[in-house]
């Protein structure tokens, strides 16, 4: 991939990946915006008539499972299909998932759609994110800002989706709304197909193809994994009835933490990981932990912060009734507005001789997330309804943290990943979100309007302390990440700041 300049000074392939991922996220967040209402609405009004107590944990399990599936998707891409085919198959399955919901076929169609979308997203998301990394030569300083632009595509989809899919679904017909999500994914597939010639051809084949001798073992692992998935599905299916909501939530929390730990262990012990790569994986672990803590706070925007918006915020403060759900869009809006600024900032900082390391950016992101919660202590400590600007301000602050951590995390993942595990490491990165949500699912139980100030204070302070720790570790991490190995490693290590 040459250094041709086209899209904000970035490789031209980025345009296609930007819009393909924007459409995929549009379909995903649009479906998410409708799901709870569809599941809990009365049968006579076109819903499924489930109780909210059953629907909420199911949606949470589903959200976490999607990002956990990315670990499996990464394996399939690295070993069987390559990024290009994995993205296409994934996108096709996601579209099928939305089509299941677009036909009025009840709870069975919902479960089928969940399986399609979880598997499809698990395939597509790590593969497409990994192709962004492949647009850049190893030493290209544009990588971080390129990922910031790509991440803006995610937010463009996320902002538009509830407005379009949500409005059509709620005001007109649920299935029409889901149909628009399906059309959105179809558009994403078309954009991807059109742009695939601009992508790095390494995505055309698996990066570490399965050798014939490994096939029997892979079959065994696939069978065991298949049985495990079926068992989990069975437990979840009965969980709406027999197992209480808490049981289902506890199950995800455990899985979401255990799977990434297991995967790190496999990567560190694999004979295909070179010594220098092993040092880089070790350097990645503290940053992964910081990311888990970050997502634990950021993803509470949809739970605790949503609840605070509904219960403790003066929604009439500006003379009209602000819908509580509007707060869900604040983050993505702020992100879109600030991205050009951050893309420039990273480009400038990374070219300067005293460029901040990835660990510094992560520490800053986590500290800022902590501050967003500490800020909430002020209104929460005062009795009465809070001015909505507090909440909007806190959401804007956490989004600045997101810009320091999330695009940089994607970028660092593509730089630090062992060659044999390229897309799988991306899957692992996505699972940091699943783990954060899994831990969050346990923490949010401690939140209510009376404990709010203490809750925000404790979590905010905890995040800041963790961030300071990471800051202190940053020089050590940088040294580990740049450890020299074989000649092949050296090229990569030179840029693994
Ligand atoms: N907004 C991000 C996205 O949809 C959330 C996320 C971050 C998901 C990291 C997975 C991993 O891409």
TrEMBL record:
Classification via Gene3D superfamilies: MFS general substrate transporter like domains
Swiss-Prot/TrEMBL keywords: Cell membrane, Membrane, Transmembrane, Transmembrane helix, Transport
GO biological process, any: peptide transport
Record's protein name: MFS transporter
Superkingdom of origin: Bacteria
PROSITE patterns noted in UniProt: MFS (PS50850)
Membrane topology according to the record: Multi-pass membrane protein
Organism: Amycolatopsis dendrobii
Chain ranges passing through the membrane: 58-76, 88-105, 111-128, 149-168, 174-193, 220-242, 248-266, 287-306, 326-347, 359-381, 452-474
Record domain Major facilitator superfamily (MFS) profile: where: 1-478
């Amino acid at each position: 991939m040459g250094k041709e300049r086209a899209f904000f000074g970035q490789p031209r392939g980025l345009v296609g990946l930007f819009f393909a991922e924007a459409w995929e996220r549009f379909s995903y967040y649009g479906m998410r915006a409708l799901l709870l209402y569809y599941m809990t609405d009365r049968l006579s009004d076109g819903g499924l008539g489930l109780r909210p107590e059953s629907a909420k944990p199911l949606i949470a399990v589903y959200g976490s499972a999607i990002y956990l599936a990315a670990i499996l998707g990464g394996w399939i891409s690295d070993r069987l299909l390559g990024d290009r085919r994995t993205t296409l198959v994934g996108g096709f399955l996601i579209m099928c998932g939305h089509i299941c919901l677009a036909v009025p076929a009840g709870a069975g169609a919902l479960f089928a759609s969940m399986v399609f979308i979880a598997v499809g997203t698990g395939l597509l998301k790590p593969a497409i994110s990994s192709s962004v990394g492949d647009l850049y030569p190893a030493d290209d300083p544009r990588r971080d800002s390129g990922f910031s632009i790509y991440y803006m595509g995610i937010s463009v989809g996320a902002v538009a989706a509830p407005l379009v899919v949500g409005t059509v679904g709620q005001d007109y017909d649920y299935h029409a709304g889901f149909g628009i999500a399906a059309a959105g994914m179809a558009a994403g597939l078309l954009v991807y197909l059109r742009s695939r010639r601009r992508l790095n051809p390494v995505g055309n084949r698996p990066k570490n193809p399965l050798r014939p001798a490994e096939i029997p073992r892979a079959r065994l692992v696939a069978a065991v994994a298949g049985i495990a998935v079926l068992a989990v599905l069975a437990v979840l299916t009965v969980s709406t009835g027999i197992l209480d909501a808490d049981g289902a939530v506890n199950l995800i929390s455990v899985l979401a933490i255990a799977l990434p730990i297991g995967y790190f262990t496999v990567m560190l012990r694999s004979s295909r990981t070179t010594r220098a790569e092993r040092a880089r994986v070790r350097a990645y672990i503290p940053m992964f932990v910081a990311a888990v803590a970050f997502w634990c706070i950021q993803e509470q925007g949809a739970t605790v912060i949503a609840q605070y918006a509904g219960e403790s915020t003066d929604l009439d403060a500006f003379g009209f009734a602000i819908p509580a759900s509007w707060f869900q869009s604040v983050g993505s809006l702020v992100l879109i507005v600030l991205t050009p600024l951050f893309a420039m900032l990273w480009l400038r900082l990374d070219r300067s001789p005293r460029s901040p390391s990835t660990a510094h950016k992560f520490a800053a992101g986590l500290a800022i997330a902590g501050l967003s919660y500490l800020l909430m202590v002020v209104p929460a400590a005062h009795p009465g309804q809070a001015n909505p600007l507090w909440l909007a301000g806190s959401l804007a602050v956490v989004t600045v943290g997101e810009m320091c951590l999330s695009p940089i995390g994607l970028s660092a993942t593509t730089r630090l990943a062992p060659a044999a595990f390229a897309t799988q490491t991306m899957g692992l990165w996505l699972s940091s979100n699943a783990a954060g949500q899994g831990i969050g699912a346990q923490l949010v139980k401690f939140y209510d309007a009376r404990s709010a100030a203490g809750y925000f204070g404790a979590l905010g302070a905890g995040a800041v302390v963790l961030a300071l720790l990471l800051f202190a570790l940053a020089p050590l991490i940088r040294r580990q990440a740049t450890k020299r190995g074989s000649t092949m490693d050296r090229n990569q290590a030179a840029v693994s700041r």
